[in-house]
Amino acid sequence: MMKSFLLSLISKAYAAPATSGDAIISKPAGTGILPGAGVEGSDIQSSVLFSRIIPFLIQWAINLAMALAVIAIIFGGYMYLTAYGDTEKRERGTRTLIYAVIGLVIALTAYGVVAIVTSIRLS
Description:
Distance between the termini: 43 Å
Number of helices: 4
Low-confidence stretches: 12-16
Radius of gyration: 26 Å
Number of strands: 0
């Protein structure tokens, strides 16, 4: 009963013609204030900032994060192996390894997301 009522309301809303009381957005809010707001797809593709500089900086930061994570894994492994029975040093090495692996997973995920987003072409 409720489902059919909602479906009838939705169908009436789509079938209703536009009246003078309907809001038509010709210029979205934030145009000119937010960076990139109101910019057409062709303008974004031709913009050097959006097409070259920002993706380069993001890739560089992600590559740096991955390199630091690998260095932290090596350092944590060294701390763990040279603990020689010292439980505090062993635990510190284990924590370093865990956090470094988590950081590496986050950096790899970010790398994948950036690769997917930068492969999208705007028409």
